[in-house]
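FYI - complex with flavin mononucleotide, inputs then prediction.
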Amino acid sequence: MRNTFGTNVTVTLFGESHGPEIGCVVDGLAPGLHVNEDFIAAQLALRRPMGRISTARVEPDPFRIVSGVYQGRTTGTPLCILIPNTQARSEDYVNLKTTPRPGHADYTGSVKYRGFGDPRGGGHFSGRLTAPLVAAGAIAIGALRSRGVTIGTHIARLAGIADRPFDDLGEDVARLGSLPFAVLDEAAGEKMRAAIETAAKDGDSVGGILESAVLGLPAGLGEPWFDTMEGLLSHALFSIPAVKAVEFGDGFGLAEGRGSETNDPFRMEAGRVVTASNHNGGVNGGLTNGMPLIFRTAVKPTPSIGLPQQTVDLSAGENVELTLTGRHDPCIVHRARVVQDSLTALVLLDLIQPL
Ligand SMILES: Cc1cc2nc3c(=O)[nH]c(=O)nc-3n(C[C@H](O)[C@H](O)[C@H](O)COP(=O)(O)O)c2cc1C
């Protein structure tokens, strides 16, 4: 029963979707880091639902930092962030304790917590708990920026519609930061939003792929074998509810080519070792090689859908049909984008801070 991640900078996540408050404790932050509350609020706004393409549960997220910050800077002691839940409507979830939603954590959570877990709104498994991660991530993003490290994530695919690939990484990453719907090609973004609306009208949901680039990392970050850069990032990225796959560089595509096509040749550029291509996504042997770190996550379609679904009644031991009420996201991909940036920043700060 553990809810803590990290080695040097640890994050402990707590709360339930319909409890009074959710939050996290970030420990191990160096003293003196700037804590920009306006930036935290702006990052939380990027995670917030967006009109017809999102759930109708819109939480204003008036976060409070109750420890670990003095006069706008970290003190080096545990930093605790609290965010109230103000828009819960628990009556929509009363039957989910005994009739679990297919694809959600109602069944597995009830087994793990022996029926004592809070089932309302997905309880501790709810995407709502990504809000404190975004708040903590905003502090990590700020700390990384001051060391010249920047992160950008775009919706590479949604409902089968493709965004344009990364091109000029410096420009693209800088642009993505503040976009509410993070695409590089706005025409593709319009088609994606239309596809979400169509799925919502059908009582259904859609998924997609988030692609990230991290710029400015030194070579040699990560550990061989167990705490590889890929391993640590995947560990964190799989904590995003609905993420079902992670790949680095050309990922699964690497399996299709020959070594002559998939190796990234080294060369000298302005006195620096660089690679001519980046099929390996900036990682060799689990360590960064100084090229941009590139990775993708697959975000599945939201499990809660309006269409009738087959499930079981756990108390009666019978097969039953489930038709959901409640407010749900017809797509999570665009909201998960800032969560991906945040977890990436926390992993990287954990590695970079002691350097
Ligand atoms: C920002 C965000 C919002 C989410 N909103 C919903 C939602 O409204 N309804 C839902 O069924 N799942 C939602 N999810 C996904 C579920 O929490 C997730 O699918 C569930 O916990 C099961 O975990 P798994 O898909 O990783 O197996 C959301 C996820 C995120 C990241």
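DSSP finds eight helices and 18 strands in the chain. The chain has one domain: 4-352.
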